[in-house]
Amino acid sequence: MSDTVAAGATHATHAHHEELGFWRTYVFSTDHKMIGRQFLFLGLFMLIIGGLLAMMMRWQLAWPETAVPGVGWVPEPYMYEGIIPPQTYNALFTMHATIMIFFVVMPIMVGCFGNFLIPLMIGTRDMAFPKLNMLSFWVGAVSGVVMLVSFFVAGGPAASGWTGYATLSAKAAYTGVDWGQNLWIISLFILAISSLMGSINYITTIVNMRAPGMSYFRMPLTVWSLFITAILLLLALPVLSAALAMLLFDRTLGTSFFLPEGGGQPLLWQHMFWFFGHPEVYVLVLPAMGVTSDLLSTFSRKPIFGYHAMAFSMIAIAFLSWIVWGHHMFISGMNPLLGTAFMMTTMVIAVPSAIKTFNWLGTLWGGSIRLTAPMLFALGFVSNFLIGGLSGIFMASTPVDIFIHDTYFIVAHFHYVVAGIIFALFAAIYYWFPKMFGRTMNEGLGKIHFMLTYIFFNLTFFPMHFLGVGGHMRRIYNPMQYEFIQPMQDWNVFITVTALTLGLSQITFLLNFFASLFRWNANWFRFLVQIVVSAISGYALQMFVGLALFLLVGASLPLAAALIAGVVLGAIVFWYLYRKMGELGETAPRNPWQSNTLEWIATSPPPHGNFEAQPVVYRGAYEYSSPEVKEDWLPQDKPLGTGAAARAH
Amino acid sequence: MLQWLPEDVSTFGGEIDSLFYLIYYITAATFILVTVLMIVFLVMYRERPGRRATYTHGNTTLEIIWTIVPAAILIVLSFMSVSTWAKVKRGAPETDFELQVAGKQFNWEIVYPGSDRKFGTDDDRKFDNDMHVPVNKVVRVHLTANDVIHSFFLPNLRLKQDAVPGRTILVWFEATKPGKYELPCAELCGFGHSGMKGWLFVHTPEEYTQWAQENLTPKPQ
Questions:
Q1: Which among A168, A351, A361 is the nearest to B34, CB-wise?
Q2: Superfamily in which the B98-215 domain is placed by CATH
């Protein structure tokens, strides 16, 4: 990222007339944009680790107790020449979830885009507390290091699930994991401190530092979503911290908060964990909803449908998220009367989500829709959120939950919601990459990335519903140990094959991201990108065709036909890329998407201090195709004739 | 998708399954409606030269409709769920057949009370993982755990209940068809969680009497 950021830093030095050295520019920076980029790189690094852990789990589920390729070097007893033992399998899903939730989605959606976008979108120079902001990142980075160190301590990392249910997590003897679990607790405790610092900063900045004219109801929905997210974090994290501290005391100091033999209550942990955990789910998904709203409006060239309903439904979700935690505990032994009450609140919280989905549809209606890479990913988020939201209704009904609780139906549901966020995450990266780095990501590669990710995400997670309906429990090491699950094993193989392809497809993103960032445009490299991406696409698409045929007519594609299909499809992709793939990392103009929000009036990337002059806001963020102007966009800061400006107030 | 549901052999499973079907049809219809509209809009309103997007900020009537309709459906669904939930989780009928089940790493410990029908006396009989009950008989299970949380899962009886250390939770079922049904642990309970399972043997009354005579032999009075 060297010279992109160097360009930004040069501006910064001009603006401030002081020399910031390497360390203060790239490492201990107080610039919200640099901190945002730091969170992005932290999140992407962890995404690769979390993804690889998932691939290993999938291997074990499809072909139990066979050697996973490439990990033969892991010493015993963690692996036996590549064969995963049960204890390691438990550690894999524990760490996969922990990393994906706390070190991928939170750092990228909240840490990166919160930091990068809030000051730019509300038209101010920086966060309210820049040093606190820097501290927030570095405390978060320490937490990530502690989590990664836990892989290397004796006994291995935490293996009691990301939910860390006591009593399993409260005594080393129950899992055989001693310091791994302690470090897991300590790491999350540190991360909570980091997030608290961030959320205080976000709230203060949004309340106090909005540009002149930027009333609350002129803020883009991305800012609204991050504002509400920050409030949720501020209120939820202390509960998690308290629970974690109690758990650590039970493990190390001999207290009995959660241990019945000392008078403690195992369910207390679940109540505290989910009292944090359910708002946490909305912490993850609200920014994705905000980003999606902004992108759908921008690329439909149309105002967001029902702006106030969109903002109020997020506020409603935030309030209701505090009184639904018990729906994670219907089967836990909690009083069944409470189960009935939590079912009612849970059904109610589905309503604002439904409103959002219909308003997104309303935004598309009558638009002039541009299917750019970021728009495709935003639509992908809507489509997956729809499935995840609808499958949630099954669990909300307490009697149905008796059967599907702790099965793959739940795994399917939360992957459609939480892993579905990755679509909003990619959408946001493709959309704001030009502003972040002053370069554009490649559209052609982005579209191929979307196609592969969308197809294989659905092929991976949708069949998990079938497994769940069949009663397939989650968190089991070897499905073949159960007679009633054995007939469904073909689906496990299917899911693993598609999950591996989903993982492989992400190479397309990494190539695009880094090649655009560093402007790798040497002929040999461009050719390499084209070959690699078309090989992946050819392989993936022939598999898609093959699997579709298999499901429709029950006949598998003969090897020769599959090879031919792969070569033909790969060749089509290659031809497309050869013709359409322009320069990698093209210099980004200020406003490449012709968007209304304030970040686009700054240079790409904006210098330290962001704007050349303090922007003044005259209208909301969604004046696309307004009859008042000839163009189909009307930036928030553009003054019209006095009459028009007055009307806009 | 629904053909994957395991065979139901319980008295309350039918109600659970019909709620499942109902929600399935409602969500499937909603999914199709939204997806079709989305695809139609993406095609109809794709960017075309010379056409400008409709400038509108919303439609209050429409928004009220699509708030009230889902709210009504969801509230009706939750009221429909209340009675089945109460039946399974709160309404354990009276019976003379009671068992104690304790989850422990990594077995189900099943205790028959013996002829005095009291637990914790000398004539108790303990079995690991095998549970024998007569068909068409209400069975009350006093469920607990000795170490960590386990979950008592009978897929064919649509029954699941976590077993929590330090507590005893009453669950019940009535099997309607003789057979052999799997009894896995559904809550992560440690490295041996996978493979922690028992079997529920549902016998005809004659078979059960025979089994009881062979295995629960009462002490001479």
A1: A361
A2: Cupredoxins -  blue copper proteins (2.60.40.420)
Work out the mean pLDDT of chain A and round it to a whole number. Answer: 93
* Residues B95/B137, Cβ–Cβ less than 8 Å: yes
Query: Which residues lie below 8 Å from residue A382, measured CB to CB, with a gap of 6+?
Result: A292, A296, A357, A360, B38
Q: What is the pLDDT of residues B130-161, one digit of tens each?
A: 999 999 999 999 999 999 999 999 999 999 99
Q: How far is A8 from chain B (nearest CA, A)?
A: 35
Q: What is the pTM of this model?
A: 0.94
- Which of these, A339, A386, A404, A393, lies nearest to B22 by C-alpha position? A393
ipTM score:
0.95
C-alpha distance from A175 to closest chain B C-alpha (Å)? 5
Specify whether the CB–CB gap between B56 and A303 falls below 8 A: yes
Contact in structure between B7 and B175 (CB atoms under 8 Å): no
**Chain A partners within 8 Å of B147 (Cβ):** 167, 174
Mutate to test the interface with A, among B105, B162, B167, B182 (most CBs of A within 10 A): B162
B49 → chain A, closest CA residue: A368
CA distance B182 to B178: 13
- In chain A, which residues have their Cβ closer than 8 Å to the Cβ of B102? none
Residues of A in contact with B20 (CB under 8 A): 394, 400, 403
Domain regions of chain B by residue span:
2-45+57-89, 98-215
CATH number given to B2-45+57-89? 1.10.287.90
Beta-ladder partners of B104: B107
**Cβ within 8 Å, pair A369-B47:** yes
d(CA A250, CA A245): 9
- pLDDT tens profile A100-143: 999 999 999 999 999 999 999 999 999 999 999 999 999 999 99
Please report, for residues B98, B126, B172, B194, B212, the alpha-carbon distance to residue B119 in angstroms, rounded to integers and kept in the order given. 9, 11, 17, 29, 17
Cβ within 8 Å, pair A331-B42: no
